[in-house]
Write a structure and sequence with these properties.
alpha+beta, Rieske Iron-sulfur Protein, 2 domains, 6-stranded antiparallel beta sheet, 4 helices, 31% helix, 29% strand, binds FE2/S2 (inorganic) cluster
């Protein structure tokens, strides 16, 4: 073999060239746990991006669904409310109104009594109403029925009575407050 042949072979088989052709991973020692392969690095990067994307997507949904502090305040701050004048609610009629953020119901019964309740059905939470043809509180969702004087569940699926509120007449006006 001639000198020129030897020089040519040496140039082709340099140690650096071998490494470039056979090394399929990067020798990055990111966490001090040895070399990290390209696949592992890509999986970590994709996982991080997916986590970031998920957070950015879910946070607005969480913010929207989270109860607002002012909603809770408006419910807890209302302890008494003037609904209407007594002569605006004739005997044998009822009126739905908002007690803070809570649906409520005032009833002037045919025998002249005033009764108020939270108008939230104890079955699945529909809003109940007074029905003068039955002199009863009625839930249209599944036909639940409550006594108009006591709020007791008397027919249909509701498992419990309605939550009572206190109703009184002050200076000719109906005032409802927490019972
Ligand atoms: S929600 Fe009222 S009866 Fe079902």
């Amino acid at each position: 073999m001639s000198d020129s042949d030897n020089k040519e072979k040496t140039a082709l088989e340099t140690p650096g060239q071998d490494k470039l052709e056979t090394d399929s991973h990067w020798d990055l020692d990111i966490l001090g746990e040895g070399p990290v392969g390209r696949g592992k690095l890509m999986r970590t990067a994709v996982g991080g991006i997916a986590l970031l994307w998920g957070g950015m997507t879910l946070y607005p949904v969480y913010s929207y669904l989270k109860p607002k502090p002012q909603d809770k305040d408006s419910e807890t701050k209302v302890t008494s409310l003037e609904v209407c004048k007594l002569d605006e609610l004739p005997k044998g009629s009822g009126r739905n109104f908002r007690f803070g953020s809570t649906p409520a119901l005032i009833i002037h019964t045919p025998d002249g009594e005033l009764h108020a309740f939270k108008a939230i059905c104890t079955h699945l939470g529909c809003t109940v109403q007074y029905r003068n043809d039955k002199d009863a509180i009625w839930c249209a969702c599944h036909g639940g029925q409550y006594d108009s004087h006591t709020g007791k569940n008397v027919a249909g699926p509701p498992p419990k009575p309605l939550t009572p509120l206190k109703a009184e007449v002050v200076d000719g006006k109906i005032v409802v407050s927490q019972a």
